[in-house]
Amino acid sequence: MRIRIVDAFTDRPFSGNPAGVLLLDAGPFPDDSWLQRVAAEVNLSETAFAHPLPAGGDADWALRWFTPTTEVDMCGHATLATAHVLRSAGRASGTVRFAARAGILGATTHDDGSITLDFPTSSLTRMEIPEGIAAALGAEPVSAYDTSEDLGDLLVEFADERTVRALAPDFGALTAHSRRGVIATAVAEDPAGGYDFVSRGFFPAVGITEDPVTGSAHTALAPFWAAALGRADLTGLQVSARTGFVRTALRGERTLLTGRAVTVVDGELFSSPEA
Question: Quick one: signal sequence residues (predicted)?
């Protein structure tokens, strides 16, 4: 069975966010335990599994995502990686529709090689800054927002970019503050630097300490910064060690996430669901 590792939200190998991608045969997904074992073996933040659906339906492919420890409801970078593999393999062109836990998700490939994801916009509910979150992150936020209705994340704003870059989280303590993870963000220090805001994403509750580039988090970051900056189209830089750019376009109940991807590993998985 062919398996790829794709770096998403980047045009350079060994940056962005790596995802495993397996294109399966038509029919139902293999047993969940096999999918989880493969994801644990790949040991990246997410591994995507997709199989083709019959023509004429609402979606073209069924898509699921697993971290090394659990299945997740939404994942941007592994969806981008899957669309990239489908295009590279000649299995799809133009817009691909994925049936996933989060509903129908679109991925459109452009002539320049970039890919735009069409995801649901996350809700944001302002809340009191949770007690203990400053100690868990290593700095005092200026505001906090709940996205639990959609993502299950806590979004926390900091005063400046330097503070976000310098965060040193206590990952054990962070698990008490959200169902999925904590998104830290601040406005860009230099408006001429090619990005409008920065972020980092910490998801120890689902087996990921720091995620290199979190596409799904930008469905909350996009409406937050669109309201703060007064513009619907923005660029985010996730300032993990690998870094990656996500172009966001807020379109009401949908958020468009645009980025690039590059395949870094193309090999054979010597295990089958029947083994």
Answer: none
Percent of the chain at pLDDT > 70 equals 99
In a shared domain, residues 53 and 137: no
- Which residues are 237's β-sheet partners? 198, 245
Distances (CA, A) of 30 to 5, 36, 57, 273: 20, 10, 21, 6
The answer to the question of residue 273 being in a domain is no
Parallel/antiparallel/unpaired status of strands 143-146 and 125-127:
antiparallel
Catalytic residues: 46
Number of domains in the chain: 2
- Taking each continuous run of H as one helix and of E as one strand, the counts in the chain are 6, 18
The one-letter amino acid at 161:
E
- Whole-number Å distance between alpha carbons of 262 and 16: 9
- 222 in Cβ contact with 183 (< 8 Å): no
Average pLDDT per run of 10 along the chain, which is 275 residues long?
Answer: 97 97 96 97 97 96 97 96 97 95 96 96 96 96 92 96 97 89 97 95 93 97 98 98 97 97 97 76
The DSSP result for 86-134, as a single string, is HHHTTS--SEEEEEETTEEEEEEE-TTS-EEEEEEPPP-EEEPPPTTHH
Pairing of strands 61-66, 95-100: parallel
The pTM (predicted TM-score) of the whole model is: 0.95
